[in-house]
Each structure stands twice: as C-alpha cells, then as structure tokens.
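TASK: fixed-backbone design
INPUT:
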C-alpha cells in the first residue's frame, strides 16, 4: 500500500490538541467524533462533527482540539509537516495530583 505524503489520519482522545502551523490549504475532515478549531487572526471558532470538512484559510497557527473520541483526516500541505501535540489537560492534572500526594505523604523527621 502506497502512502501519500499529503495525507495523514489521526485518532484523538477527548481533550487532545494539535497545532497546525502555516498550514493554509490543508483540509480537515472528521470521520468520527467532534473537533473544535481556532485559527490565528480569525475571530470565529469552528466546531466540526462527523462528516464535516473545513479548510485552513490562512497561515499562522491553527489549533485543533478533540471534543470526543475523534478520527480526523488531514489532506494538503499541513499533513506532511510535523504536528505539535499539546499535552492533554487531564494528563497534566493527573501529574499535578500525583506530585501533591507524594509531597503530602512525605514524613518529616525532626532533627535531634
């Protein structure tokens, strides 16, 4: 099976985000789930559901965030560039909670 350099399929969990930088002309198609998209210089955010397609209209940063378990296809110039994933908020909260528990569990021993 040949792969296309201008096509990428991603599976995103709720809260997962990716940055598309300078990806004008890239098409975003939702196969399953729901996406929230915000684009640099655009005052309007976009919400796409399964079956919806949207094209990045300008260069700059475009942030794509999954609102549910989502299957998304990227086609065009942005699909072949490196994608920068943004850490999930849930993951960061779990790490913070673990650090808090570890600090609370620490037993301090007074010096004699």
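OUTPUT:
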């Amino acid at each position: 099976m040949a792969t296309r350099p201008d096509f990428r399929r991603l599976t995103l969990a709720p809260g997962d985000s990716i940055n598309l930088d300078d990806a004008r002309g890239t098409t975003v198609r939702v196969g399953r789930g729901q996406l929230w998209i915000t684009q640099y210089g655009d005052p309007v955010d976009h919400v796409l559901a399964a079956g919806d397609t949207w094209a990045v209209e300008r260069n700059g940063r475009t942030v794509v965030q999954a609102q549910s378990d989502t299957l998304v296809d990227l086609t065009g110039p942005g699909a072949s560039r490196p994608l920068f994933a943004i850490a999930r908020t849930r993951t960061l909260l779990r790490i913070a909670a673990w650090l808090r528990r570890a600090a609370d569990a620490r037993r301090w021993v007074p010096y004699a």
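COMMENT: The chain has a mean pLDDT of 85.
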